[in-house]
């Protein structure tokens, strides 16, 4: 699942801004949405506080209202699945750290509105760490060393996107090499994509065809070698 990896030398406020934005954009229903925030243990409490503040400041409502920051999931059934998954992971021992404020209007339940959630202490083998939920649910877990961060991020069958937050160019370069994903963002949102750049995933992510820039042509054309000689008289 898409991971945002935050090291102790990062600008934590900037990282929190990027992570929450990437977790809730399109109401958490992007293939590149942030699903996990991996944070160096020494700054876990500080980042968790920053993420909590931003999650609790989200506003559910009419998507056509400029003040709204979180709209509905695609169907009421999708909202039901997200609710059930959150209840299940809590029973499994995870802590629900924060939720976006819910609106007291039964029509919103029928419309599929789901308050974003921040979760920590998710069991290692839990499906929330393994499967896509496509809802604004962000899990947080800590790591002690760089190698731990790369290992946790790669410990999934998916490999689409990841973000690294650090002030170290050396560490950022190491992450670009070690992360088993198709898109790596450094000190910006993991859900970023530019048309002129290649886009695609590793492992079980993507459909096997490259997208973006000149690489997109290879998915629409066939490479062919043609040999010929002058026509005989």
Characterization of the model:
This protein is of the alpha/beta class and 233 residues long. It has one domain: Aldehyde Dehydrogenase, Chain A, domain 2 (3-Layer(aba) Sandwich), CATH 3.40.309.10. 29% of the residues lie in helices and 16% in strands. The protein has six helices and nine strands. Strands 3-4-5-2-1-7-8 form a seven-stranded mixed β-sheet, sandwiched between helices. Strands 6-9 form a two-stranded antiparallel ribbon. The longest helix is centred in the middle third of the chain and has 16 residues, at 76-91.
Record keyword descriptors for this entry.
seven-stranded mixed beta sheet; two-stranded antiparallel ribbon; Aldehyde Dehydrogenase, Chain A, domain 2; 233 residues; alpha/beta; globular
Name of the CATH architecture: 3-Layer(aba) Sandwich
Number of separate helices: 6
Helical residue percent band: 25-40%
Strand content: 15-25%
Give me the secondary-structure category: alpha/beta
Instruction: Note the run of SSEs as H and E.
Output: EHEHHEHEEHEEHEE
The poorly predicted ranges are: none
Radius of gyration, CA atoms, in whole angstroms: 20 Å
Question: CATH topology, which one?
Answer: Aldehyde Dehydrogenase, Chain A, domain 2
